[in-house]
């Protein structure tokens, strides 16, 4: 993902000198002066470009593992929210308004990640509602979202925002300005099954409208087309089998996901990993984050058999990458293990649970002791969405019809 994976990727830039959210159409995430690591924040690296992202993924992974995150960690994330509801990559001074002179700029990727985390933690409906309202105001006429306010749509940002609304129980097909939904965008950008990049999606069209396959965007698009967020379990095997399939009719979202899965399977090396785009004059290197995202995408689409090889490669090779990259990388591996139905306590001999928890404030309790404190996902999501709907109808007036989720990488 490199919109969805911005924190891990951007952290890797700092650690290795080497892309949810990210980023995106505006490839420069909101910036702040370099600061020391704040209390309550996961990870020790400079949070300027990935603080909210890595915090969100870490909290979401802890909840997925059955833990209740530390209050200080949750409060840190809530405190990062901007006045209008969005989240920036990091706000060094939360007393300074966002979007003003010298203020941090909110973006869709950080916001969508925060929504998924806070919804999973529970008890923060007001913050979730406010963030969702902000996201609705940024939907483009083509049905998608760009990285920052006013940016053109891209596959990664659109997919991570879909995941945010899906997390609260809202059908993404009901999100549209005019007649276009986010699914319309993904369907339009799905490459045909014949020719280069068969079944893939681009990050976004180039200036001439050409669509070029992008493995990062394609992995994100699988979850987006399926209406799923970062955390998912293995789905049912697709009826059309493990292959790319064209249709005389417009593709359904499920077909977009299936064709994208076919592309990802073909893009894997013989050893089972995806390559990163080579730096000028350099060689391609294994892309650990994209490989983890591919495992989650394939499993979510019911392609668990093809996902076994890249998952096995991650177990053998990805722990060192996670140690260098930090909490978001550990979270991605937790999501991969969860999607495959595997035990994250024994990931190639490494306890991902202990490793993740060691990067931030210790979680409070295990799931068994916490179920009463966590609102039911369906009930909470429904309540949040109706409040969002009321806000849109009453005050925003952006034409929503309430009827019924970096650097561009080539594979």
UniProtKB/TrEMBL annotation:
The chain crosses the membrane at residues 384-402. Keywords: Membrane, Signal, Transmembrane, Transmembrane helix. Residues 22-41 are annotated as: Disordered. Residues 1-24 form the signal peptide. SUPFAM superfamilies: Terpenoid cyclases/Protein prenyltransferases. InterPro entries: Terpenoid_cyclase/PrenylTrfase. Residues 22-33 have a biased composition (Low complexity). It comes from the Bacteria. This is Squalene cyclase C-terminal domain-containing protein.
């Amino acid at each position: 993902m490199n919109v969805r994976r911005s924190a891990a990727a951007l952290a890797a830039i700092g650690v290795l000198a080497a892309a949810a959210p990210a980023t995106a159409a505006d490839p420069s995430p909101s910036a702040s002066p370099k600061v020391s690591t704040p209390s309550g924040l996961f990870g020790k690296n400079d949070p300027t470009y990935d603080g909210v992202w890595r915090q969100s993924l870490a909290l979401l992974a802890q909840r997925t593992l059955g833990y209740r995150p530390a209050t200080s960690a949750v409060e840190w994330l809530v405190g990062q929210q901007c006045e209008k509801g969005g989240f920036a990559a990091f706000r060094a001074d939360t007393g300074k308004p966002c979007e003003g002179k010298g203020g941090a700029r909110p973006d869709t990727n950080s916001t969508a990640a925060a929504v998924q985390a806070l919804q999973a933690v529970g008890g923060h409906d007001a913050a979730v509602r406010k963030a969702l309202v902000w996201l609705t105001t940024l939907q483009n006429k083509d049905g998608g979202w760009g990285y920052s306010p006013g940016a053109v749509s891209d596959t990664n940002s659109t997919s991570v925002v879909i995941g945010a609304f899906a997390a609260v129980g809202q059908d993404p097909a009901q999100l549209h300005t005019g007649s276009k939904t986010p699914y319309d965008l993904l369907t339009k950008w799905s490459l045909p099954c014949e020719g280069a990049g068969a079944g893939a999606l681009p990050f976004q069209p180039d200036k001439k409208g050409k669509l070029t396959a992008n493995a990062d965007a394609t992995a994100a698009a699988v979850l987006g087309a399926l209406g799923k967020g970062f955390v998912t379990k293995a789905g049912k095997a697709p009826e059309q089998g493990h292959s790319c399939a064209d249709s005389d009719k417009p593709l359904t979202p499920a077909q977009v996901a299936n064709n994208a899965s076919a592309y990802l399977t073909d893009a894997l090396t013989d050893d089972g990993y995806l390559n990163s785009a080579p730096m000028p004059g350099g060689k391609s290197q294994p892309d650990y984050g994209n490989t983890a995202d591919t495992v989650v995408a394939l499993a979510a689409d019911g392609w668990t058999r093809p996902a076994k090889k890249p998952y096995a490669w991650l177990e053998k090779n990805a722990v060192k990458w996670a140690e260098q990259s930090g909490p978001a990388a550990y979270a991605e591996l937790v999501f991969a293990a969860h999607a495959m139905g595997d035990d994250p306590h024994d990931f190639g001999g490494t306890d991902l649970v202990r490793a993740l928890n060691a990067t931030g404030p210790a979680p409070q309790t295990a799931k068994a002791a916490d179920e009463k404190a966590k609102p039911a996902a369906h009930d909470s999501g429904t309540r949040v969405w109706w409040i969002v709907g009321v806000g849109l109808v009453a005050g925003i007036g952006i034409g929503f019809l309430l009827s019924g989720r970096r650097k561009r990488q080539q594979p």
